[in-house]
Amino acid sequence: AQTVTQSQPEMSVQEAETVTLSCTYDTSESDYYLFWYKQPPSRQMILVIRQEAYKQQNATENRFSVNFQKAAKSFSLKISDSQLGDAAMYFCAYRSARETSGSRLTFGEGTQLTVNP
Amino acid sequence: NAGVTQTPKFRVLKTGQSMTLLCAQDMNHEYMYWYRQDPGMGLRLIHYSVGEGTTAKGEVPDGYNVSRLKKQNFLLGLESAAPSQTSVYFCASSRDRDYGYTFGSGTRLTVV
User: Fold this and answer.
1) Helix, strand, coil: what percent of chain B each, to 5?
2) How far does A15 lie from chain B, in Å, by closest CA?
3) Which of A48, A82, A113, A116 is the most exposed place for a label (fewest CB within 10 A)?
4) What gap in Å lies between CA B77 and CA B64, rounded to an integer?
5) Averaged confidence pLDDT in chain A
6) Would the CB atoms of A33 and B94 count as touching at under 8 Å?
7) Which of B51, B38, B43 is nearest to B86 (CA)?
8) Nearest chain A Cα to B42, which residue?
9) Residue from A7, A33, A34, A43 whose CB has the most chain B CBs within 10 Å, to mutate
10) End-to-end CA distance of chain B
């Protein structure tokens, strides 16, 4: 079974600075998808970024980018020019590309990000 | 489009009571999921469905049942609520495995 680990329960960053959230995963598969979700205090889960394992190029979405290291099974999220609205719980998630177990997402434990003004 | 709608948003139950959480999606998604979120544990899969009339157990299915009689609806039932089922419950749907989920806004359930 796949597992996802986020080793940083809490992180903080100064407004306008850059922060990196860590995520590692364990899988024996070669084809899969990785995601970062944001959960602000409103509780709504928001997709931040998606990475396909067969693509070597790291995904980017505006101020959000990832560092995908397939061999190391690492998938970190970098937030540049941090804004107060970035304060949230961030979840890393894994999804197999195979039709197994309902194509479920497996989530990490989450990292609570605080942005200081 | 409403996306994924969960009802109710909040509920307090007494131990031993039963209830049903409703999830409805209007995106014609095949896959639907129920997760629970607890502090420090991320989201854990309770049950899921890969299409109308199908259901399957996830990671933490004990004490819950589900039904998907219509493609757009996925119901989660608690037959006899226990304090350990105090949690935030999320429903999600997905078009296929190439994409992430669309989540509902969650249900905060407290069992006293």
Assistant:
1) 5, 50, 45
2) 26
3) A116
4) 6
5) 94
6) no
7) B38
8) A109
9) A43
10) 36
